[in-house]
Amino acid sequence: MIKRFFILCSGADTAILETCSNGEQNKYAGIGATVFFTAVMAFIASAYALYTVFDNVYYAVFFGLVWGLLIFNLDRFIVSTIKKRDNFKSELLQATPRIVLAVIIAIVISKPLEMKIFEKEINQVLLEQKNDLTLANKEQIALQYSPKKEVIHQSIEKLKQEITTKEAETNALYNTYIAEAEGREGTKLLGKGPVYEEKRQKHDAALQELQKLKENNAAKITTLEEQAVALDTAYAASVKDSQPIIDGFDGLMARITALNKLPWLPSFFIFLLFLAIETSPIIAKLLAPKGMYDFKLEEEESIVKTWVTQKVEQRNTLMQTDAAINKKVYEDIEQENEIYNYKKQQAEKLLKQQTDAFHNIQAKNL
Questions:
Q1: What tens digit of pLDDT does each residue of 141-197 get?
Q2: CA-to-CA separations, 158 to 152, 207, 218, 225, in angstroms, rounded
Q3: Alpha-carbon distance 295 to 83, whole Å?
Q4: Among the four residues 28, 318, 343, 348, which has the most C-beta atoms within 10 Å?
Q5: Could you tell me the CA-to-CA distances from 128 to 121, 124, 134, 187 in Å, in that order?
Q6: DSSP for residue 13
Q7: Which residues are within 8 A (CB) of 164 and not within 5 positions of it... i.e. 6 or more apart?
Q8: Which residue windows are transmembrane per the record (predicted)?
């Protein structure tokens, strides 16, 4: 049962192969098994690749099955259409387009499995790329908010500097009227005289201005700090909203790019492995000697070709003979006066009828 299934997979003519030896049947069963398991590998590889795209098991299995059946049909077609000839160069020339197609199929099949085999290494590369993208994303978003925050910080520092300057002026006035009361500066008179009162009033006025300035600037600073907090909140929200895009940076193209950053030698050997699997049925048919099945198949083709050639030649001969006979018959008829006279009479009748009909039409128009 399994043997018959694999022979069916090889694309061989089962009616002819059943008349061949067991060794010939086993050879084509081996070729069919290679075709079948290549399709299975194509199904697994494509299903995994599509799973990374759709992130859905059902879609991946369905389209993977379609791709596996397509590869199975192509491989079966490739193997079944290679005919053994007595000239190896002609066989190789016949198989060259199929080998090129097999190389393309091997590349398509091997890439998804390479991504699965090197999944941990690819995840590490993707993690590094995601980290770089996260930092770059934060820097780009910060460029949108940094100028505004810088203006706010400068405004806050300016308001604080105004308070500091006013405090320094008030403290200076305080030291002035204290020094006047102690007799160390000014009039050099100890006690609280008119000059002391004047300086004390200036200090008190400056102190009131300072308190008012502190209140006004404190309100402005609070407003600016709230604006800065709002900018920080908006920045954090922008980073949070864009982070899922970076976290989702693990699609098929991203994984292929990450795979290309890994050492090429392991991937190359895996590709060679699948190339060997994919081309093995073709190489087997090219290298295998001409067997009983090939001779019988060539005989069947020769019989059909000969039969078709005979039929075509017979039809051509019949057509040529019939044409020659018809030509001779019409040449003989051309020499008979009876037919000539009959045709002349019929033509005269027709001309008379045409003349009468034309005359009647002209008469009606008068």
A1: 888 878 888 888 888 888 888 888 888 888 887 777 777 666 666 666 566 667 667
A2: 10, 20, 12, 13
A3: 10
A4: 28
A5: 11, 6, 10, 77
A6: -
A7: none
A8: 28-51, 57-74, 268-288
Of 272, 255, 280, whose CA–CA distance to 117 is shortest? Answer: 255
Angle at 123 between CA 121 and CA 125, to 5 degrees: 70
- CB count, 10 Å around CB of 206? 19
pLDDT in tens, 275-304: 887 777 777 777 767 767 677 776 777 777
* 8 A C-beta contact, residue 7 and residue 32: yes
d(CA 114, CA 155): 58
User: Which has the closest alpha carbon to 268: 152, 58, 69, 118?
Assistant: 118
Give the span between the Cα atoms of 190 and 4, in whole angstroms: 128
Q: Residue 311 corresponds to which amino acid? A: K
Contacts of 176 (CB under 8 A, 6+ apart): 185, 186, 199, 203
Helices marked H in the chain: 2-10, 14-17, 22-54, 57-81, 88-117, 119-182, 194-247, 252-260, 264-287, 292-334, 337-365
CB of 115 within 8 A of CB of 194?
no
Residue 302's identity, in one-letter code, is S
**Is pTM, for the whole model, over 0.90?**
no
Angle 21-25-26 from CA coordinates, rounded to 5°: 115
Q: Which residue has the tokens 């500066």?
A: 185
Say which amino acid occupies 118: F
Q: Scanning the structure block, which residue is given the tokens 């907090």?
A: 229
